[in-house]
Design goal:
The chain has 406 residues and is an alpha/beta fold. 42% of the residues lie in helices and 15% in strands. Helix 1 crosses helix 2, helix 2 crosses helix 7 and helix 3 runs parallel beside helix 5. The N and C termini lie far apart (62 Å). The structure holds FE3-S4 cluster.
Length: 406
């Protein structure tokens, strides 16, 4: 990889030991991926924040970087933590877990990272917004990555916690993968027929993730006014079930130049036709869990944004959560601040628990007393059995509300 004189100097020994370490991480990573150089980025989004997923190794790494004088050099933000940073006791989080999580957050703050604990930085005007078409980024968190690449036309690979933090410090990332046109050109045309409801976006994403893991998909047939939450669910499920970092959608996404190139250069290797019944069948195959004995229902993966709260309030109406049932919603403080307080009050009065800073995948649901959960998210239903390690299944938000509310 070609380094500038300045980059070479940082690598050989910067007064800040943390900058030398961060540059070493980026150079090793870039050489592994055969990147030609480092490219300046507009923002970094750092993932791997929860003590549940990152554990002692992250704590040791962060202590070392802080001691070595590490500081973010560009706008940088943070993915969800393992608990609501203020209401963790109410959530039922054990003290030992909470103290480790609080130290992790303290160290990220010392590094100059904005503590937004959000996985929807693309949706909320905040630390790393605005991002624009063509911007290079170094974002961890696969749902944010696929949204930024697809819906905005920005450019980021699926970074890990360490590489996104190294990029936050240096302000650059290796130039490979999603930073290059050639890897963003569609290879698969997907024709979807039928009237898609919200849950079908999750199922479509999961189906493509499972069956077409290495393709860049060009999807046709979706409604032009598909909502922002539907598109974030589509990408989140696709990236969770597959390795995708980008999709293109006719009439919605901005990189039509690359779609035209795919057809003119004969890059489309297969055309796939899908209708709603194929997606319903996929639900039975991919998410077979029976939810009749579920004791918790969780919403907000990706975290709830303003439109999601409006939909939930409408579904609840005047009803209340029945005794013995729980419905939890996960969001960020930034997202919550954009919602009409009256809507939030109505939802909380109905008995729904709304938590900030965290999500159902990175918080210890088992320690909170849940043994099986239902969710409306294809991504969450994939990861909950692997991380908090309890069974999970998928069902539409409105159906979940009907099951929980009296
Ligand atoms: Fe976000 Fe957690 Fe889902 S970080 S995308 S809510 S797994």
């Amino acid at each position: 990889m070609d380094l500038t004189r300045e980059e070479e100097g940082i690598l050989q020994g910067d007064p800040s030991h943390a900058r030398t370490k961060a540059m070493g991480i980026l150079v090793n990573y870039g050489e592994l991926q055969e990147a030609d150089r480092l490219v300046p980025i507009r923002s970094a989004h750092v993932s791997g924040v929860s003590y549940l997923t990152a554990g002692e190794a992250l704590l040791m790494f962060l202590r070392d970087i802080v001691k070595g004088g590490g500081k973010a050099s560009i706008p940088s933000s943070l993915n969800p933590a393992g608990m609501d940073l203020e209401r963790w006791k109410e959530m039922g989080i054990p003290e030992g877990f909470a103290s480790k999580q609080i130290e992790i957050i303290f160290l990220f703050r010392e590094l100059g990272i904005t503590i937004n604990c959000s996985c929807i930085p693309y949706e909320i005007p905040g630390a790393v917004e605005p991002i624009s078409f063509g911007d290079h980024l170094a974002w961890g968190e696969s749902n944010a990555v696929i949204y930024a690449n697809s819906m905005v036309g920005a450019r980021t690979n699926r970074e890990g916690g360490i590489s996104s933090l190294a990029s936050a410090i240096i302000g650059k990332t290796p130039n490979w993968g999603m930073h290059l046109d050639e890897n963003r050109i569609p290879t698969l045309e997907v024709n979807v027929k039928g009237d898609m409801d919200h849950i079908h976006y999750d199922l479509l994403g999961a189906y493509l993730g499972v069956n077409y893991n290495s393709d860049v998909c060009y999807i046709k047939g979706l409604k032009n006014d598909s909502s922002k939450p539907d598109m974030k669910h589509l990408g989140a499920a696709m990236a969770a079930k597959g390795g995708h970092a980008i999709y293109h959608v006719e009439g919605i996404t901005p990189e039509m130049k690359l779609v035209d190139m795919a057809y003119s250069e004969d890059r489309i290797r297969e055309i796939v036709d899908l209708d709603i019944s194929d997606l319903e069948r996929a639900k039975d195959d991919i998410y077979p869990e029976d939810l009749s004995d579920a004791d918790g229902f969780v919403l907000g993966c990706p975290q709830f944004g303003p439109e999601d709260f409006i939909r939930l309030a409408k579904a609840i109406g005047e009803r209340r959560v029945r005794d013995g049932k729980r419905l939890l919603v996960f969001t960020s403080r930034e997202a919550r601040s954009l919602v009409d307080p009256g809507i939030l009050d109505d939802i909380e009065r109905s008995g729904v628990e709304i938590y900030n800073d965290t999500c159902m995948v990175v918080t210890p649901l088992g320690s909170m007393g849940m043994s099986k959960v239902g969710t409306d998210s294809g991504k969450a239903a994939h990861y909950i059995p692997k991380l908090p390690r309890i069974p999970a299944g998928i069902l539409p938000l409105e159906m979940m509300v009907d099951l929980v509310m009296g």
